[in-house]
Amino acid sequence: MSSVIQEVASTRRAAGERRKGDGRMAALFLAPWFAGLFLITAGPMAASLYLSFTDYDLLSSPTWVGLDNYVRMFEDPRLIQSLKVTFTYVFVSVPLQLAAALALALVLDKGMRGLAVYRSVYYLPSLLGGSVAIAILWRQIFGADGLVNQVLAFFGIEGTGWVSHPDYALNTLIILNVWTFGAPMVIFLAGLRQIPRMYYEAASIDGAGRLRQFWSITVPMLTPIVFFNLVLQLINAFQNFTQAFVVSGGNGGPADSTLLYTLYLYRKGFADLDMGYASAMAWFLLLIIGGMTLVNFLASKYWVHYDD
Amino acid sequence: MTDLATPSKVTFAEPASSPEGRASRAGRTVRRVRSTVASGLKHAGLVAFGFVMLYPLLWMLASSVKPNALIFREPGLIPTDVDLSNYTDGWSALLHPFSRYLLNSAIVVLGCVLGNLVSCSLAAYAFARLKFRGRNFWFAIMLMTIMLPIHVIIVPQYVMFSTLEWINTFLPLIVPKLLATDAFFIFLMVQFFRGIPRELDEAARIDGAGHLRIYWQIMMPLAVPALATTAIFTFIWAWNDFFSQLIFLTKPDMYTVPIALRTFVDSTGESSWGALFAMSIVSLIPVFLVFLFGQKYLVKGIATTGIK
Amino acid sequence: MRTSINQRGRRGAAVAAGAAATALILSACGGDSGAGGGGDVEAQDCPCEIRFAWWGSDERHAATQEIIDAFEAENPDITVVPDFTDWDGYWNKLSTAVAAGDTPDVMTQEERYVSDYATRGVLADLGGLDIDTSKIDGSILAGGQIDGTQYALPTGINAYAMVANPAVFEEAGVDLPDDTTWTWEDYVEIADEVSKGAGDGVWGTQDYGFNEAGLNILARQKGESLWTPDGELGVSEETVAEFFQTSLDLMHGGGQPDATRTIEYQHAGPEGSLVGTNVGGMSSFWSNQLGALSEASGEDIQLLRYPGESEFERTGMYYKPAMFYSVSASTEYPDAAAKFVDFLLNSEEAAKINLTDRGLPANTDMRDVIADELTDADQQVAEFMADLSDEIVDASTVPPNGSAEMQDIMERVNTEVIFERMTPQEAAEMFVKEVGAAIAG
To answer: Which end of chain A is less enclosed by CB atoms within 10 A, N or C?
Structure first.
């Protein structure tokens, strides 16, 4: 504690020095994070990178195999299938989920009776997202004799077992992901409230209408949050695992139609005791996500507005 | 020393004034009728949508009062017979009463919330407001740490924590949060901090405030929505986190709610679905309350906190 | 500029710390490698604490804790720490703990993984420990032997069998088959008849194609077997194709539901299965699941021999070790661990608490001990198992390393068949190829 006070004092004294850069202050503020990075995160990450170059079954020592695991990946038809599934999943569900989240955040932001209840109710599915109960529930809704088909039958349409048909099972997973839009919705809500009211007041005085205010204040001021949600939901969706695991009974079925990349990786590592291969898959995924994120950041310069 | 905010800045912290007062006198009645109808429709839409969102919970609630054998035989929403024995049986079915697992989860979750609030906001302040060499580099590293699936990290982590003799304690679950390893929240707060007008800290700096004071007296109060988001998400995610708690907690007296819930079902043998649903409902209550209570901070943030 | 030097120094220290952590992790990842045979661990005397790991659901957890309490009462110097979770979580947790050299002293094993764990030196040679195995039948003991060494002791036995729901048969106006003589053709016919007789939404049977045990029975009837003693796939492509063809015929003839329903029922476990929810006449299950099925359906579910037992050159049914108890090769307390395993297998107290939860006890004396305490369903299982003993030709071979992938392959291949994206012949080719790759790697 006393060192913190000293830092404060010395920083004040060195007010001129601070103009050149805040290296020392940064080190102070980042100290917990650096400690976490080097003591907790870096070691296991480096270890997994090393293990990706080994044949490692978890039960005995890893043996160095060079690039073998990475080469095997390109000859693995299930891995290619899992990439297809994952890309479809990510690029369909993330935009839909964000659109739903933003739309509802805008509706629920304005003063209205029962807001707290609506917000909480809309968030509920996100609380259930990974529960084992979802497996049974999803069958009850999207099964051959499920709720959806009962509604369709009312209109004279004959459905199929959506959740267990290889052609449709992935769609039910996408719906599940969109349905749990609570997290981005909450972040949007917080973001909307972060926009200083003085901007709106100033705009009102200038005679700008609501729509004008929305496009010239709300939208630009919200872009950092939209950007955040986009980046994070992409990263999350690429690593999504629990929902597919629960709904498919653990194996990405039927016929690998819901074999998300991380689910396949998990099975390889723990069920098939091939952790070397799983580690290689993980680092390959990191490259994909990293590339995607980099593109996002580069593109953000053109549409994300920061107040600083 | 001096007041950090000038009176003129305080106005921006006032609650939003409702824009309705500007309606012209002539059209007021018509508009009021129209807006009542519109708001009625809006509520009807929100309620209908809310039912879709609530359906799973209602279904789970219904299933939790059915005898185990009827959950599959009569999967409908309305139970033919209400039987609370799933609650009483489920509560005491495991080695300890369920309250033990709730308590353990509460300890883990509170530690995580506290850790994330402090450590992530410190790191976020550095990334959002301080100039230092390698800022972009470290930011990229930070994002990278959340791009690797946990499944390949967990084994090296276990090895590390086992060497520290932290296995079967809450330390592997809490200490990483104290050290800001949840980069998701750093990024979240960076985005929010960057939305806070710079003029505020410029003014404070002219008054001679150091970064620690700016962080504590300007950023933190203004970022209440972001802090609330972090707290709520950390709470919910830590409450539901199955994988790492399963791996790091080995003795039943340390088990948490997600592990306890999972012990009701076993894919190779008999499962107590009724007890699972009943205890899932029980364990949802705290999370739901936290959200219901916490969500007002998401939106009240700037308006009520103000600056002193 | 002082700042940056200072910072660089700190950063250097941090990098060093990270590197040290990495080195430590890597050296420990192979932690168990030297432990093969348990030679390098010095055995300690008690008082001591040993950890016992198992999978299951709440009823087993409660029963096992009771057994532990009974053991501790008899052995006050040994404390047994329970470590339990469900099936999927169990194998994650166990492999992670083994990787860190933190193997539970006593653990539960299963035939799909026992060879993987044994051949990598994780499991102790139980022959060298003081555990009485004289009451366990030799052919059942063999299920826990790899290359002649006893790494695992069977907890009990199960048989993969057909179950029938008499209420559904009655509703359909069809008699229960005579399971000593029925052929595969009879099976298909009866299933079709039940479907027709019982009307909409009720089917004759649930698809057996997701589980390799049924395939193993057919293979054994034809003089083949799923695995050969030297760890190869022992079933021919023709047999595999025939196996899937029967399933497809049943679907086409209406004896079993369409593909999507088949998958839904498959994932619903015994409680949500066709037989368990009283909408199906027959289904394939392990004998120890009879209790769950009877309870879920509220009916007196019957165990039947698999079809075709008298159709070919020999019978195909077999006793499967339900699970195994194994001891860690690196335990500090091998004697305490052995004492506990011995208690689990041979004490009347443990047997009376456990009943048939871990299969019908492998210890034949214990079967008599628990006979009076069994539920009706379990009584039926015990009689059924006893009836089989004269018919079973030999034990099924221990699956080789990599066989854990079998279940996954089975499920994928069968899905391709029932959605008719592959012919049974193509499916058989895919099966042979994928299983070959799994056990080779």
So the answer is: N
Rounded distance, CA C375 to CA B267, Å? 22
CB contact under 8 A, B195 and A109: no
Contacts of A6 in chain B (CB under 8 A): none
Counting one residue from A and one from B, how many pairs have CB atoms under 8 Å apart? 297
Span C409-421, average pLDDT: 95
Q: Which of B242, B259, B263 comes nearest C58 by C-beta?
A: B263
Our count of domains for chain C comes to 2
| One-character DSSP codes across chain B | ---SS-HHHHGGGSPPPPGGGG--STTHHHHHHHHHHHHHHHHHHHHHHHHHHHHHHHHHHHHHTS-TTHHHHS-SSS-SS--THHHHHHHHSSSS-HHHHHHHHHHHHHHHHHHIIIIIHHHHHHHHH---TTHHHHHHHHHHTTSS-HHHHHHHHHHHHHHTT-TTSSHHHHHHHHTT--HHHHHHHHHHHHTS-HHHHHHHHHTT--HHHIIIIIIHHHTHHHHHHHHHHHHHHHHH--HHHHHH--SGGG--HHHHHHTT--TTS---HHHHHHHHHHHHHHHHHHHHHHHHHHHHHHHHH---
Tell me the C-alpha distance between B220 and B189, whole Å.
10
Q: Where are the domains of chain A?
A: 1-51, 67-303
Side-chain half-sphere CA neighbours of B67 within 13 A:
9
Taking CA atoms, C141 is separated from A190, C133, C152, C275, C321, in Å, by: 64, 8, 8, 33, 9
C312 shares its domain with C344? no
Q: Tell me the chain B residues in contact with residue C21 when contact means C-beta distances shorter than 8 Å.
A: 160
Query: Does the CB of C117 have a partner CB in chain A at under 8 Å?
Result: yes
Q: Which residues of C touch B275 (CB under 8 A)?
A: 58
In a domain, C26, yes or no: no
B-chain residues within 8 Å CB-CB of C288? 269
Closest to A255 (Cβ–Cβ): which among C4, C88, C419?
Answer: C419
With contacts defined as CB-CB under 8 Å, which chain A residues touch B42?
A: 107, 112
The DSSP output letter for A46 is H
Say whether pLDDT at B12 is over 50. no
- Say yes or no for a CB contact (<8 Å) between C405 and A271: yes
Identify the H or E element spanning C51: strand C48-55
Q: Which residues in chain A are closer than 8 Å to B43, comparing Cβ atoms?
A: 112-114
Q: How far is the alpha carbon of C89 from chain B, nearest alpha carbon, in Å?
A: 7
Residue of C nearest to A264 (CA): C408
Domain residue limits at C280: 160-317+402-440
CB contact under 8 A, B119 and A47: no
**Which chains would you list as touching B if contact means 3+ CB atom pairs under 8 Å?**
A, C
To the nearest 10°, the Cα dihedral for C415, C416, C417, C418? 50
Q: What is the pLDDT of residues C107-131, one digit of tens each?
A: 999 999 999 999 999 999 999 999 9
The pLDDT score that the predictor gives to residue A299 is: 94
Q: Does B291 sit within 8 Å of A235, measured CB to CB?
A: no
pLDDT digits (tens, 9 = 90+) for A139-172: 888 998 888 998 999 998 888 999 999 999 999 9
CATH numbers and ranges of domains, chain B: 7-22+95-305 (1.10.3720.10)
C16 lies in a domain? Answer: no
pLDDT of residue B44: 86
Q: What is the largest distance, in Å, between two alpha-carbon atoms of chain A?
A: 80
pTM: 0.89
Residues C209 and C270 in one domain: yes
Contact: B147, A275; criterion CB under 8 Å: no
Judged by a CB distance cut-off of 8 A, whether residue C369 touches chain A is no
The answer on C339 and C255 residing in a single domain is: no
Kindly report the CATH number that applies to the domain delimited by A67-303. Answer: 1.10.3720.10
Contact B15, B296 (CB under 8 A): no
